[in-house]
UniProtKB/TrEMBL annotation:
Family assignment from sequence similarity: Belongs to the class I-like SAM-binding methyltransferase superfamily. rRNA adenine N(6)-methyltransferase family.
Positions of S-adenosyl-L-methionine binding: H46, L48, G73, E94, D122, N137
Annotated Ribosomal RNA adenine methylase transferase N-terminal domain residues: 53-222
Annotated GO MF terms: 18S rRNA (adenine(1779)-N(6)/adenine(1780)-N(6))-dimethyltransferase activity
InterPro entries hit by this protein: KsgA/Erm (IPR001737), rRNA_Ade_Mease_Trfase_CS (IPR020596), rRNA_Ade_methylase_Trfase_N (IPR020598), rRNA_adenine_dimethylase (IPR011530), SAM-dependent_MTases_sf (IPR029063)
Keyword set includes Methyltransferase: yes
CDD domains: AdoMet_MTases
Gene name, Swiss-Prot/TrEMBL: DIM1B
Coiled-coil stretches: none
Alphabetized UniProt keyword annotations: Methyltransferase, RNA-binding, rRNA processing, S-adenosyl-L-methionine, Transferase
E.C. designation(s): 2.1.1.-
Native source species: Stylosanthes scabra
Protein known as: rRNA adenine N(6)-methyltransferase
Amino acid sequence: MLGGAPRRVIPRTPPKLLLRQLHHHHASANAENEDSIRFYKSRGQHILVNPRILHTIVTKSAINPTDTVLEIGPGTGNLTLKLLQAAHRVVAIEIDDRMVHVLEKRVLQHGLRHKLHVIQKDALRTQFPHFDLVVANIPYGISSPLLMKLVYGATPFRSATLLLQKEFAGRLLANPGDSEFNRLAVNVKLVADVEFVMDVSKRDFLPCPKVDSSVVIIRPKDQLPDVDIHEWRAFTRTCFSRKNKTLGATFKQKSKLLRLFKLFNVSGFAEEDDDDDAGGCQRPFKEKIIGVLKTGGYEDKRPSKLSIEELLHLLSLFNGAGIYFHDCRKNCNQDRFAEDDDDG
């Protein structure tokens, strides 16, 4: 109202739900006495409550009775209980001690505590133990780095059945030429195949998120290309920084020329740190890069339309000309890929 008293803004608090709302399919007679718990949407705490979806996820995961399943972000255990019934053992990584308390209590009540191992740590900073497959409702905020840690990690696994934000899953499933195709899809599909399973409505979660989700299955490939992973990832970072620009335009950018020039000479690195312009002593280097692009017919092509095979070929042409993208002086940890791969 104009001229009226200012409205008092009451800050929103995280939704506080009774656990029986989440576990109504397994509620005990004294459920009314259960504690309540707050869920933080900012932490991606959305609990899947639809029993049909939970059943389908477990069924599609093709779990063997001898399997160890890794679950990341088990929350209060709706999916965990079904995994414990199908698998030999479940390793659950959960950072929230409130969730761990509820999870362990529920599993104990079902007589399955001996099959569950809980790791109360940050999944991105924890070394994964041995596991056969992954089944998880991944918190939206860590989807990209966690996926990179799985597919490029040191622990081999058979498959990963993941419940992801629908838009994120769409990028994983995208092919060259699709508007969603980007660096994330390229880096994942280099080492794994991605299969769409189903969409999941936001109404199947408590508290309800803003967007729908999708289930995908990721299966590591048996045969991998003969390429240095760190070199590949640095190369795709350069190419997909502007995925819809031509490669000729991308590699003429001053910042990229300077960076690549510093990595270029017989020993691998030049001491030259001149950033006057992309000409001068760097002009022959620029011409060398454009020459590689022209040789392969890539100068006028856009990375968003190139297949993985074409990108691998282009990288081999660059490396064959002595042009590299990864600074090998930096220490690399094969089980840690913290940077975000979800580039435009």
